[in-house]
Specification:
This is MALR1 protein. By secondary structure, the protein is mainly beta. It is built from no helices and 7 strands.
């Protein structure tokens, strides 16, 4: 089924991301806030909000964790599409996946060293029979 949820940041964090605490380094902003590119979201809207790494975080890493996903009996496959913008050559964006029965985070996708300065989209597919976080 298409129980797809759009995840935007217009009011706060979206349901998919942990409300508990936004990890240090992540800020919710829009293109109007004078903080350098991007100056709009992936739809070209300059007042729409997105998450951005603060400039103090240039040399370290910051994590975003989703809420717990529950596979249903019928569907164990989940597709997540996300939009991203990389404005730094040395930056690496990684997507990890952690089953609740495991301590380790498995890296399932990453991009680095691409100074794109444009919004790109990526879709990851996850197949799991147990609870997990991304």
């Amino acid at each position: 089924g298409s129980s797809c949820e759009k995840c935007d940041f217009e009011t706060d964090l979206c349901k998919a991301l942990n409300k508990l605490n936004l990890q240090p380094g992540w800020i919710r902003r829009n293109g109007i806030s004078v903080m350098g590119p991007p100056y709009s979201d992936h739809n070209g809207n300059d007042s729409a909000y997105f998450l951005s790494l603060s400039s103090e975080m240039r040399s370290s890493s910051a994590t975003l964790r989703t809420s717990v996903f529950l596979p249903t009996d019928k569907e164990h496959i989940c597709q997540i599409t996300f939009h991203y913008w990389i404005s730094q050559m040395s930056g690496t964006l990684m997507v990890g996946f952690q089953k609740h029965s495991e301590d380790t985070i498995t890296n399932i996708w990453q991009v680095s060293g691409e100074l794109q300065n444009q919004w790109k989209a990526n879709t990851i597919t996850i197949n799991s029979t147990e609870k997990y976080e991304v």
